[in-house]
Amino acid sequence: EPEVTQTPSHQVTQMGQEVILRCVPISNHLYFYWYRQILGQKVEFLVSFYNNEISEKSEIFDDQFSVERPDGSNFTLKIRSTKLEDSAMYFCASSEAVGSGEKLFFGSGTQLSVL
Amino acid sequence: GENVEQHPSTLSVQEGDSAVIKCTYSDSASNYFPWYKQELGKRPQLIIDIRSNVGEKKDQRIAVTLNKTAKHFSLHITETQPEDSAVYFCAASLSRANNLFFGTGTRLTVIP
Lengths: 115, 112
Fold this sequence. Notes:
The complex is a heterodimer of chains A (about 120) and B (about 110). Chain A is an all-beta fold.
């Protein structure tokens, strides 16, 4: 069964440093997402991406965040200057289409720790 | 925006008993309601979903019910097994997009 893959599984960084989280969505999927989950809290939507541009973004997704699809397979989330409160599990997801009932498939996540 | 509430936060049941997890949502425009199971350290996995034109859906031991008037939906697991132990998240989304609004999760423990 196809899966969304994410690398690295764990990332430790110093406050103020830039990090790039990488994702390879399922190959025939067209819509891509980033979510995050702070320890013990709910999964929160960050951004959705389609046709090489952002479709939706949440209040969390401020100017420190950016997303990119640099080639035909990868989808990245960049945090320019990390803060302590950015520490969380970041999940990438993809779906074949958008609209009511289109299933999202999640990757296994990148645990980001900002020191 | 949409706000999803989930109860209980923890639930322990004896193996073979049923488990029920309940969620409410705030935006009447939400019309897709998936449930995800997340085992420790693993990705959330879709286990069942329901759309607003359906009141109930069943898949083997798992069922979901939806009451659009009351804006709540529930997950029912019958004949629970130890491997059902996990954190379960409900979610809701609007028709125009797939952005999921998640509940806070329920940690289910099935005691052998």
